[in-house]
Amino acid sequence: MSLEKNIIRLTKRAIKDFSMIGAGEKIIVWVSWGKDSMVLGYILNEIRKQQKDKFEIYGVYIFKEFLINCDIQFEEKRKYYEEVLKIPLEKINLRLPADSKLNDGICQNCQRCAYARRIALMKTADKIGATKICLGHHMDDIVTTSFMNMTQGRKLKIMPPINKMECWDFTFIRPLSYIREKDIQILCNQKNIPFSPCSCIIWETTMRNKIKKQLWDFESKIPWLVENSFWALVKDFQEKYKDKEYIVK
Questions:
Q1: Which of 39, 75, 103, 198 is most buried, by the most CB atoms less than 10 A from its CB?
Q2: Taking Cα atoms as reference points, which of 72, 84, 4 lies closest to residue 32?
Q3: What is the pLDDT of residues 105-161, one digit of tens each?
């Protein structure tokens, strides 16, 4: 089985396991221009073409005005989404309060930035009548965040493959949950999918990035560390939240 077919198979499995996307639903994909969201659009489009009961896909690109070079090669990637994948794309400008912006180029309030992005996505979803918001997080992201919650937040909490909002009629879904980051990178190269590296100037120094690199280093000594950790976390998540309609507080 080719890598592309295997990624499509695993993505379909994740969608089915968590009832992520139903026939005729409108979903939006947050497009960051990174490899994950670009591959997410590609894979969802391939799945849509294979299904008898279609679903609608809308892309949303959030332009962060406070980041330098955030708009690198925007036109190239817009054409890929709209002309190759046939997915309409909307661009939204994101502004943050003064106290959330870069402080002398040293630090960034990542939590405030993430919150502002989610609000922008939900407003766009509400405008077009979508109830599902697709994020490009993959297996490595989920395990990394879960370890960060344990080591930094002192709590056992997974980055959920699906998270239905308790007070809003929106559900955040992660169709690439069963996919490894290295396979996404390979598929990008194989299919010449355009993408840009992370534009956040402090990404390399974040705790999230440090933990991810440490996990990869551990996995070189302990085979299947990331995948076994992921399936343990997912099993626990399903047992705790399936009867609660995956509403994660």
A1: 39
A2: 72
A3: 444 456 677 777 888 899 999 999 999 999 999 999 999 999 998 988 888 889 999
DSSP string, 34-56: SHHHHHHHHHHHHHHHH-SS--E
The burial of 69, by beta-carbon neighbours within 10 Å (0-12 exposed, 13-18 middle, 19 or more buried), is given as: exposed
Q: Give the pair of three-digit tokens for residue 131.
A: 């109830």
At which residue do the structure tokens 């939240």 appear?
241
pLDDT tens digits, residue range 73-88? 678 888 999 999 999 9
Distance CA 24, CA 54 (A): 6
Pure H helices in 181-224: 181-191, 207-221
Q: Are 216 and 139 in contact (CB under 8 A)?
A: no
Domain at 3-244: CATH architecture: 3-Layer(aba) Sandwich (3.40)
Residue with tokens 């080591």: 151
- 35-69 pLDDT, tens per residue? 999 999 999 999 999 987 789 999 998 876 655 45
Question: Which has the closest alpha carbon to 207: 166, 247, 159, 150?
Answer: 150
Domain ranges of the chain: 3-244
Q: Kindly tell me the burial class for residue 146, based on how many C-beta atoms sit within 10 Å of its own C-beta (0-12, 13-18, 19 or more).
A: buried
The two structure tokens encoding residue 202: 């402090």
Tell me if the pTM is above 0.90. Answer: no
